[in-house]
Specification:
mainly beta, 38% strand, globular, binds beta-L-arabinofuranose
């Protein structure tokens, strides 16, 4: 459901059928990255605000300036706002637009990863460090070398290695890069050309650097061919997430302008991944962005929609719904409004 005005009757009909409710209502939250730390659920969302900038295809209306962390004892219980975790005024390199974050832990410390635009207008990804899952986090003075674009998602593999996935096209600027080099002339590929994929790189042991240059992830179709650029219902757009289920790696992501959450399955954190299907049909609001987490043996999809604000795309609310797998490992598609 793309950005437009909704009538009271339309909004009420959707609210009546919604499969889940906002985790919190006192602030707008989006792009939830959920993890189990210290036996509780910690959710790392964007903190949406009204920045006064009109809707455009580059996401200029997403003018976020800080982060709050949410905590739940269980996915079907209430959420607590743990307060301010990081403010843009404390990040020397960041100028504006603090978009979707994530977090990870290693050796008792917590690492908060976030994208922001620098003064030159380019997105990069930074890290901030804290002693508690909810922060506060102290930012490193420079962004992480070798990162660019948006939407970091950090996956802890079973062997202890951590991988950062990142990248988003259009406003996220991923289409401006090839082989990790920027060129303003580059655009999203079109037609039968292979679609762009997200990037992945292993993190260094101190969790503050990429241990290797990022590489592009390939998503294959049912014939083993890379998804085509004009396959907008399935191609990668933004919001990568990685989880493991029954020994397989599941890359999930948003298709952006077609508004689906999809997944693809592989045998390595680097891929390749084969397209598996849809996780979530479109929500109210332009963007879709999610995470998937296991808690007490059940699987949960954290996502957002814009119902709380009456359909304003940049004023979203985080929600959670239970995910189910088929016997063959396929994820059953959820319909956000029944
Ligand atoms: O919240 C700003 C941007 O919108 C995120 O970075 C994207 O994933 C989309 O949800």
């Amino acid at each position: 459901m793309a950005d437009r005005e909704y009538t009271e009757a339309e909004l009420k009909a959707l609210a009546d059928k919604a499969i889940s409710q906002p985790l919190v209502r006192h602030i707008y939250t989006a792009d939830p990255s959920a993890h189990v730390f210290e036996g509780k659920l910690y959710i790392y969302p964007s903190h949406d605000i009204e920045g006064g900038t009109a809707f455009d295809d580059d996401g200029g209306h997403f003018q976020m300036r800080d982060y709050h962390v949410l905590r739940q004892d269980s996915p079907d219980g209430p959420a607590t706002d743990c307060g301010l975790a990081l403010d843009i005024r404390d990040v020397p390199w960041a100028d504006r637009q603090m978009w979707a974050p994530d977090a990870a832990t290693r050796d008792g410390r917590y690492y908060f990863y976030f994208p922001a635009k620098k003064a030159d207008g380019l997105f990069q990804i930074g890290v901030a460090v804290g002693d508690r899952p909810e922060g506060p986090f102290k930012p490193e003075p420079e962004p992480i070398a070798g990162t660019y674009s948006i939407d970091p998602a950090v996956y802890a593999d079973a062997d202890g290695a951590h991988y950062m996935y990142f990248g988003g096209i259009w406003g996220g600027q991923l289409q401006k890069y090839r082989d990790n080099a920027y060129d303003a002339a580059h655009e999203e590929p079109v037609g039968d050309a292979p679609a762009l994929g997200p990037r992945v790189a292993r993190l260094s042991d101190d969790m503050k650097q990429l241990a290797e240059p990022s590489r592009e992830i390939v998503i294959l179709d049912e014939h083993g061919q890379p998804l085509r650029a004009d396959d907008h219902d399935r191609r990668y757009f933004e919001g990568p997430w990685m989880h493991r289920y029954q020994g397989k790696y599941y890359l999930s992501y948003s298709t952006g302008n077609t508004h689906y959450l999809c997944y693809a399955v592989g045998d390595s954190p680097y891929g390749p991944f084969t397209y598996g299907g849809r996780i979530l049909e479109p929500v109210l609001g332009w963007t879709t962005h999610h995470s998937i987490v296991e808690f007490d043996g059940r699987w949960w999809l954290y996502y957002h929609d814009s119902l709380l604000s009456g359909g304003v795309t940049h004023l979203r609310a985080v929600k959670v719904a239970e995910l189910e797998y088929d016997a063959d490992g396929g994820i059953r598609t959820l319909r956000p409004y029944g």
